[in-house]
């Protein structure tokens, strides 16, 4: 009897570790997803043990697997008859059964949501999985814009209600065998829906435990709570997770985990370089990292915040316009996104004078962006890591690419290297014809030379992390003495509004070098005694327009309509002056008087100088539109020479004097331009 008991005990001791090892054993399989014309296959690891541990503990392998689940749930739009094939294959590869994906057979509408639900038995526990479709979902995109004025974003809440109803129905038709747990994941819009669904399912008690990992998650609620079982993984520069706006009070349920960024994290280079290598392995091109594009979109959102300071204002005025337009589009075109916003704002009106000013600026800004990114040639000539020709204007939203999320998640096995809570960065603006060198004291981190593409309109705009102090050296390259100004905008990836630091200026001769540094709190601190704080001489009221003009980040500082108005003013001035000259000539002939030649010369010189100053102003305010420079410059030259040769009928000798005076005026104009603009 004792021998029998000992034998049974020995067998039990042997069986238990084997059973435990069976759960702990990794199962590697290949998952596939499709978006932006690319089919990407990637290896994932699955273990049953993922769902036998507490859901409150972040598991990096489970997070990666959850991203694979979310991406496999994308619709395969090129194959309408098999839009759910990748999701079914993913679920079957890890042992899920009773798979239901019938909703994939329906056409997307602004009110629909697509998802797949399946079941797997793990010992005495039933695991239900819900994968929400977050890519290639067409008109469903319109619900992203439906925010409302309730606690939760209306479009996401409506979709989450549909998913929760489907889960309840599934559980009723497929009762759990033993305990029941839920695993849910989504990307982008699906991430917001998953975030709300996970919170509700945690509270409802429908499941014993809920495992939720969401990616590129928009904000969902104005009463966020810390659900420890919900993890939201977000790229800091990604615009989608920034809406609805934090300035409106929106947040997310659960824990936000932000991937490291070159903008905010000084020591992020190794991770980002590894992510870039994985990205190339996936799709064969460079991972786009472009702070200028990110800031362009930030300014667009800053304008929206200025025009619509709360969700009620947005819901009442802009939301109906956007949704109506979106319903008529496919919802997946980034070109359409900016054009749809432009069209909606063209139909929007406001009685507030300040908002009217900002609205005009925003319309001009959007028109400029559309012209720059959709009509301008040469973007393909940018560096491969700044613009990927195969994605075209989708580059504007590159930080929302699922490829980048996947590459970043696999760039390190250590979550401590992947995630960072540092959210602030600096946009350093230096105005002058200069070479700029940024260093940490020992290592040169960034150099920008006068004439580089990064020097826009005579300005260097450099993005720097705010998590440590950096040294900046500025060397003058202008032939004549010039005044150099510099400032810093402190920005956060949590909001769109910037904090403008002090504005400094100093005079430099060619070859002179000035020094200042950035402080860890984002302030700009001069290191030379001749640097003067001129903040008090500048309008300090912040607005998106002042930020745009301060940076001049590859768009016009004076907006398109402003340019048209200036041009019309010049033409009207010329017309009035000609009419006045004709009238004076007629009066003089009737009275048989002849104009004094000296008066005529002065008259011609004044007209020429006025046109020269107008052109100088146009040149200054429109530094990035070559055609504007050419038009204004030609107008000055044409007017000057017309007045010099044919202003009035003078003797040949007087004509020569007038011609010389105008040549002197023209020379003075170009000298002033060189001194004032350093160009």
Element layout with pairings:
Elements: H1 2-24, E1 27-35, E2 38-46, H2 60-72, H3 85-93, E3 97-100, E4 115-122, E5 125-132, H4 154-173, E6 179-187, H5 189-204, E7 209-215, E8 230-235, E9 255-259, H6 269-283, H7 291-307, H8 311-317, H9 319-327, H10 334-346, H11 353-375, H12 402-409, H13 415-418, E10 424-431, E11 434-439, E12 444-448, E13 455-456, E14 459-465, E15 470-476, E16 482-492, E17 499-500, E18 504-508, E19 513-518, E20 524-526, E21 532-533, H14 544-551, H15 560-590, H16 597-621, H17 626-646, H18 652-677
Parallel strand pairs: 5-6, 6-7, 7-8, 8-9
Antiparallel strand pairs: 1-2, 3-4, 4-5, 10-14, 10-16, 11-12, 11-15, 13-14, 15-19, 16-17, 16-18, 18-21, 19-20
Helix pairs in contact: 2-3, 2-12, 4-5, 6-12, 7-11, 7-14, 9-10, 10-11, 16-17, 16-18, 17-18
Write up what this structure looks like.
With 679 residues, the protein is of the alpha+beta class. It has 18 helices and 21 strands. It has helices spanning 2-24, 60-72, 85-93, 154-173, 189-204, 269-283, 291-307, 311-317, 319-327, 334-346, 353-375, 402-409, 415-418, 544-551, 560-590, 597-621, 626-646, 652-677, and strands spanning 27-35, 38-46, 97-100, 115-122, 125-132, 179-187, 209-215, 230-235, 255-259, 424-431, 434-439, 444-448, 455-456, 459-465, 470-476, 482-492, 499-500, 504-508, 513-518, 524-526, 532-533. It has a seven-stranded mixed β-sheet with strand order 3-4-5-6-7-8-9, with helices on both faces. Strands 10, 13, 14, 16, 17, 18 and 21 form a seven-stranded antiparallel β-sheet that branches. Helix 10 packs antiparallel against helix 11 (353-375) and helix 17 (626-646) packs antiparallel against helix 18. The longest helix is centred in the last third of the chain and has 31 residues, at 560-590. The termini are far apart. Mean pLDDT is 81; it is low at 4-24, 331-335, 553-561, 619-627 and 647-651.
């Amino acid at each position: 009897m004792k021998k029998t008991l000992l034998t049974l005990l020995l067998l039990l001791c042997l069986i238990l570790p084997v059973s435990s090892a069976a759960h702990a054993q990794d199962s590697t399989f290949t998952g596939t997803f499709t978006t932006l014309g690319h089919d990407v296959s990637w290896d994932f690891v699955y273990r049953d043990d993922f769902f036998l541990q507490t859901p409150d503990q972040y598991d990096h392998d489970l997070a990666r697997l959850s991203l694979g689940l979310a991406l496999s749930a994308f619709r395969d739009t090129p194959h309408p008859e098999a839009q759910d094939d990748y999701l079914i294959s993913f679920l079957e590869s890890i042992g899920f059964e009773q798979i239901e994906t019938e909703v994939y057979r329906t056409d997307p509408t602004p009110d629909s949501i697509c998802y797949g639900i399946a079941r797997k038995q793990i010992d005495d526990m039933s695991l239900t999985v819900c994968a929400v479709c977050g890519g290639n979902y067409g008109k469903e995109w319109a619900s992203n814009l439906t925010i409302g004025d309730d606690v939760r974003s209306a479009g996401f809440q409506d979709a989450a209600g549909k998913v929760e109803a489907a889960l309840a129905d599934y559980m009723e038709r497929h009762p759990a065998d033993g305990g029941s747990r839920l695993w849910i994941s989504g990307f982008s819009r699906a991430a917001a829906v998953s975030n709300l669904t996970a919170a509700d399912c945690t509270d409802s008690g429908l499941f014993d435990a809920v495992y939720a990992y969401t990616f590129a998650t928009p904000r969902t609620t104005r009463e966020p709570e810390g659900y420890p079982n919900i993890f939201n993984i977000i790229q800091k520069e990604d615009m989608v997770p920034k809406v609805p706006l934090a300035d409106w009070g929106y947040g997310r349920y659960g824990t936000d985990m932000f991937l490291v960024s070159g903008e905010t994290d000084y020591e992020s280079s190794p991770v980002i370089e590894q992510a870039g290598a994985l990205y190339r392995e996936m799709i064969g091109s460079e991972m786009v990292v472009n702070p200028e594009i990110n800031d362009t979109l930030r300014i667009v959102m800053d304008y929206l915040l200025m025009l619509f300071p709360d969700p009620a204002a947005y819901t009442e005025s802009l939301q109906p316009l956007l949704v109506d337009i979106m319903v008529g589009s496919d919802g997946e075109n980034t070109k359409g996104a900016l054009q749809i916003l432009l069209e909606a704002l063209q139909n929007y009106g406001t009685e507030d004078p300040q908002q009217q000013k900002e609205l005009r600026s925003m319309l001009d800004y959007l028109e400029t962006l559309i012209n720059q990114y959709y009509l301008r040639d040469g973007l393909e000539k940018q560096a491969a890591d700044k613009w990927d020709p195969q994605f075209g204007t989708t580059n504007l939203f590159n930080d929302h690419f699922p490829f980048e999320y996947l590459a970043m998640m696999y760039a390190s096995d250590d979550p401590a290297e992947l995630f960072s809570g540092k959210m602030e960065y600096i946009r350093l603006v230096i105005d002058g014809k200069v070479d700029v060198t940024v260093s940490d004291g020992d290592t040169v981190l960034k150099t920008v030379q006068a004439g580089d593409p990064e020097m826009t309109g005579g300005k260097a705009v450099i993005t720097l992390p705010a998590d440590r102090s950096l040294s900046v050296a500025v060397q003058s390259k202008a032939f004549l003495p010039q005044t150099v100004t510099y400032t810093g905008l402190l920005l956060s990836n949590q909001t769109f509004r910037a904090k403008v630091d002090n504005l400094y200026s100093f005079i430099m001769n060619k070859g002179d070098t000035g020094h200042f540094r950035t402080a860890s709190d984002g302030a700009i601190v001069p290191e030379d005694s001749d640097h003067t704080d001129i903040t008090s001489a500048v309008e300090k009221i912040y607005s998106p327009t002042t930020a745009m003009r301060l940076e001049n980040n590859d768009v016009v500082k004076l907006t398109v309509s402003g340019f048209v108005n200036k041009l019309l003013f010049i033409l009207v001035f010329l017309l009035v002056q000609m009419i006045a000259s004709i009238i004076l000539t007629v009066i003089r002939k009737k009275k048989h008087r002849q104009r004094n030649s000296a008066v005529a010369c002065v008259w011609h010189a004044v007209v020429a100088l006025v046109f020269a100053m107008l052109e100088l102003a146009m040149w200054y305010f429109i530094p990035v539109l070559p055609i504007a420079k050419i038009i204004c410059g030609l107008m000055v030259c044409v007017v000057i020479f017309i007045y010099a040769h044919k202003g009035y009928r003078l003797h040949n000798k007087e004509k020569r004097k007038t011609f010389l005076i105008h040549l002197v005026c023209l020379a003075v104009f170009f000298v002033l331009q060189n001194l004032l603009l350093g160009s």
